[in-house]
Amino acid sequence: MAGAWIRGGGRPARLLFLICIASFLLAAFLVAPVTPAVQASTQSELQQKLNETRRALEKAKEGQRQAQEVKAAAQEEITGLNARIAEIDAKLQSLAGKKNEAEAKLASLRDELNRVSGELEKKRTLLAKTEADLATQTAVLEQRAVDIYKAGRVGFIEVLFMTEQLSDLVNRLDLLASIVQHDSHVLTKIEELQAKVTREKNALEEERARVASLEKEQAGQTQALKDLVAEEQSTLAGLADAKAKKKAVVAQAEQEAAAWARQEEDLLAESASIQAELSKQAGGSSSASVSSVKGTGQLVWPVNGRLSSRFGMRMHPISKVWKMHNGIDVSASSGTNIVAADSGSVTYAGWRGGYGLCTIVSHGNGLATLYAHQSQILVSSGHAVQKGQVIGKVGSTGYSTGPHLHFEVRVNGAPVDPMRYL
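Structure (tokenized):
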């Protein structure tokens, strides 16, 4: 019962559509009655039961396929979302580090700007005071010069005509010259201080302009990093929301797949029924209407194809559950001839649960073969067949994922490895 498994494309709209289809099919299957795997008393009753069971099981098969396809697509998207989330997380960590560094640098620049601005304000105040002192001292010096000039002229004439000693005139002139020289020295010092303060003020203004430019640039970079962090956080929140939704899709798909998987119990029941029938035939109580043709015990390949699944424990291709595979699967195109592996009598020909269209041939001595998932059965129950005779066509009916023949060999009703007989 192996075959190609088709995974979904992963688009949300398609997932929603598949979920709706799967839910509809599940509901339809649960409502539809499960037809017991027994032969009807008349051909018309058999055909009616065959058609009803075929429709119900085809819906079950399609429903399980859809559920698995939805689950696989959602899980694939979750894997992609996890990768994107990890990528965004790493990017956020990097951005957060850069943002913190930028904020620290911005705070340092603002502190520096405040310091320089404070120093500049002090220099401006000092310069204003110096300029005021310079203006005052200049006015004093100018007034002193005027006073000396006036005093000097009067004193000289007076000395010439009134002073008894020439030394008095000289002493007075020396004193006035000394005062003027002192005032000039004070003025020079004030001018030097003014020039120094002006230079310092100009330097501080340049420094403030430089720091202000850096602060403005850093503020822009910091804001840009904050915006990037906010954008990535928004993206991360969107991815987390999408992941939660995909998980809900997976959970729902798993529930539906589990519901379909429970229908596998029908297949197990059918297998037990077949084993009971064949055991009964081996005991000699088969129906009198069935001819007692015996085979050689040496089987031929029932179909020309590729062996795709062997006998034994395996992961079921539909239910994804580890369970026993009672036969072998041979992949072949739909409509390929199926031949009897050995001569014998047809003990069952019709729809058989998960086996779909199924034929069972008894070869005598407790040996029987089973041919499942056919698209067409070409023999009827009770007929004799010869080794190599075409008895049906390959199909994909029942629990099947694609065209192939499920072939079983049973000894006294118990399944054995067909490869021991081929």
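The domain at 265-422 is CATH 2.70.70.10 (Glucose Permease (Domain IIA)). The first strand starts at residue 306 and ends at 309.
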